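Example for tutorial group B:
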């Protein structure tokens, strides 16, 4: 038996969908008891008194209408908050803050030590440092102020450097037709800027000037993805890194794999690269030695080569 205070506690779906849910539950032998009214809903009760369905339908319609109306009101209120950046009391809304901004005495204010780190990151970028070197430098200061929670790495640095929140700009988001989020076509000046436009533009120029210098970008199936793991142990630790090994296509020479944590500059110091084809060939050889133990080495090596060629396609 399922006890519910009222039917709107069970579901707030559309009326017909609610009826379908009740039907599925009762047909599978479940008895529903509405404690506020004392009504019992099961196949026997509904068969005996079909007007019970009218009660269920009316309750479902009321619950859905109420929920839908509340949803519209909340959406409208949140839209006003995003447009103005203010709470009902007229103060700046902390829910819209990036992590380097806080609300003090009802106003947005930069958090000084965090803003200083962001300014330094932009200066490093403008001075020509790559994202890996910036991540290493920023992570040295991360422990001092205990921010951010996760290490700096290439991905979050790229998002920070290309975003415009550091200039004080805020872009509201809205739901798309698939239920995901997308930026609205509105941008407002909401926060105090922690980076000048001049420094921001210099950093963008630095990013653009280094674009495409990290090696070729081409499609390649990495069959070792999530299988090979980094076993590097930092000095003084017995715990291996454990990150996946990511594929690093080369302009010249064979493809290589390396620790994804090192590639993203997110903590691991293992800069070793391993030839992808050699590892794959060794795995294929071992597999065929198990399933074809009597095959001659020459024929087996030919199978290795064909397997690697097929993977490269």
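The residue assignment follows.
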């Amino acid at each position: 038996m399922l006890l519910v205070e009222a039917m709107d506690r069970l579901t707030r779906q559309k009326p017909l969908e609610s009826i379908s849910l009740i039907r599925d539950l009762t047909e599978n032998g479940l008895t529903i008891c509405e404690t506020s009214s004392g009504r019992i809903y099961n196949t026997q009760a509904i068969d005996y008194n079909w007007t019970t369905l009218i009660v269920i339908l009316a309750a479902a319609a009321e619950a859905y209408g109420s929920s839908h109306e509340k949803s519209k009101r909340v959406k409208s209120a949140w839209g006003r908050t995003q447009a103005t950046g203010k709470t009902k009391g007229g103060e700046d809304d902390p829910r819209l803050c990036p992590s380097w901004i806080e609300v003090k005495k009802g106003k947005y204010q930069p958090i000084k030590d965090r803003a200083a780190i962001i300014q330094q990151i932009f200066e490093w970028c403008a001075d020509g440092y790559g994202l890996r070197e910036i991540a290493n430098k920023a992570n040295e200061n991360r422990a001092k102020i205990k921010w951010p929670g996760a290490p700096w790495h290439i991905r979050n640095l790229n998002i920070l450097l290309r975003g415009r929140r550091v200039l004080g700009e805020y872009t509201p988001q809205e739901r798309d037709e698939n239920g995901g989020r997308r930026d609205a076509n509105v941008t407002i000046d909401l926060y105090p800027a922690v980076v000048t436009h001049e420094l921001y533009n210099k950093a963008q120029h630095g990013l653009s000037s280094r674009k495409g210098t990290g090696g070729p970008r081409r499609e390649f199936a990495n069959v070792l993805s999530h299988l090979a793991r980094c076993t590097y142990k930092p000095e003084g630790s017995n715990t291996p890194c454990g990150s996946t090994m990511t594929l690093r296509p080369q302009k010249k020479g064979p493809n290589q794999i390396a620790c994804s944590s090192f590639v993203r500059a997110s903590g691991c110091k293992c800069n070793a690269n391993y030839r992808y084809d050699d590892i794959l060939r060794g795995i294929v050889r071992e597999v065929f030695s198990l399933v074809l133990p009597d095959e001659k080495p020459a024929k087996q090596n030919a199978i290795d080569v064909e397997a690697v060629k097929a993977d490269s396609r």
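The longest strand covers residues 101-104. Compare this with the pattern of hydrophobic and polar residues in the output above.
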